[in-house]
Amino acid sequence: MKLLTANFLACAVKGCKAAASSYPLHFKDAELEMQEVDFQPEFIHNIIPRVDWEGLRVMANELGFPNIPGSKPEGDMLNDEQTLRDLHKLLLETHVVDGKLCCGHCGHEYVIKEGIANFLLPSHLV
Amino acid sequence: MSRPEDVLPPDLFYDDNESRKYTTSSRIRNIQSDMTHRALELLNLDAPSLILDVGCGSGLSGEILSQVGPEHSGPHTWVGMDISPSMLDVALQRGVDGDLFLADIGQGVPFRPGTFDAAISISAIQWLCNAESSDVSPEGRLRRFFEGLYASLRRGGRAVCQFYPKNDAQRSMISGAAMKAGFGAGILEDDPGTKNSKLYLVLTVGGGGLQGDITGIVNGMSDVDVLDARKRAMEKGKPSVTRKGDKAWIMRKKEQMTRKGKVVKANSKYTGRKRRPAF
Lengths: 126, 279
Hints:
The complex is a heterodimer.
Chain A: H1 3-8, E1 26-34, H2 41-47, H3 53-62, H4 81-93, E2 94-102, E3 109-113, E4 116-118
Antiparallel strand pairs in A: 1-2, 2-3, 3-4
Chain B: H1 10-13, H2 16-24, H3 26-43, E1 50-54, H4 60-67, E2 77-82, H5 85-94, E3 99-102, E4 116-122, H6 138-152, E5 153-163, H7 168-180, E6 184-190, E7 198-204, H8 214-218, H9 229-237, H10 247-260
Parallel strand pairs in B: 1-2, 1-4, 2-3, 4-5
Antiparallel strand pairs in B: 5-7, 6-7
Helix pairs in contact in B: 2-5, 3-4, 6-7
């Protein structure tokens, strides 16, 4: 699973919709893999306004990338190719292949296996 | 021909064997690819986008999303959801580009509000019309799915869902649930009346200055007839000008009572006529 996708995930449990602590989900025992993807500056331009930067920083910290800039690159910074390439590498090329995603509110653990996260819920949590 | 929806729940029906058959059959692949291209045409995306593939299966349609060339404002990045582990396994073996999730769309869409530019779904949402256990209902599953989908699309986003309803009741149940969730909904039917007829539910999320509904989307496409049910519905909804107590009202009531078998006085020239004030 790409970090970009993980940034958009929310806990699926009913009671967690309104709780602030349910976002972002926290990685546990994560195993990472780099997969090369074609560089697409237009896509980064399109998606970056929707990325939750605080959530991304928390996740990146948990995965051991401490040197994330403190604020979201905006405006002119997005014309700099190096910034875009760094974002591309972090958001699209970094994949979590194994591990768990854990909700900070209800504590539900979503298992990730071979890059596929299991979001099936037992019916009493829906 | 039997419908797979009537046989088993989707996660059991698409077992290893069935998933492999589905993915390797060239007939199914052709149909799927035609439908995906049609859906892309209806989405009319103008930049490389993030797309949700609902019921992605083995990634047949996702593959096409990744292959869209830069001249058609691609390639798109996609995220797929499916309930069948075997299908996802086939997708893994084929090495698709999108991120995959094992999830039940009837339980909602587990993404933050405003995540996706668009969503597509090829031959999946009719499965929501089946309740596989006694604690869920088709209505509830459809509601959760469409509410989740509505929230996870950005304003001005679109979703195109191709589906095979069993009958007209299912068709209106699905489009009704979408409209209840807030979508602007319309149905595009390709090859109507033939064996190959395909239904596309085109959903729009308001705002963004786009021409909102399906009539705006198909505007400019050739060979499309627009049947607008809203005009008829509006005329039906118009309050009639008859007021309680006037002649038309009395005649209607008398007719109702006659139909019920009550004894009703015969109509005459005096029926429903105003009395003079002098009386």
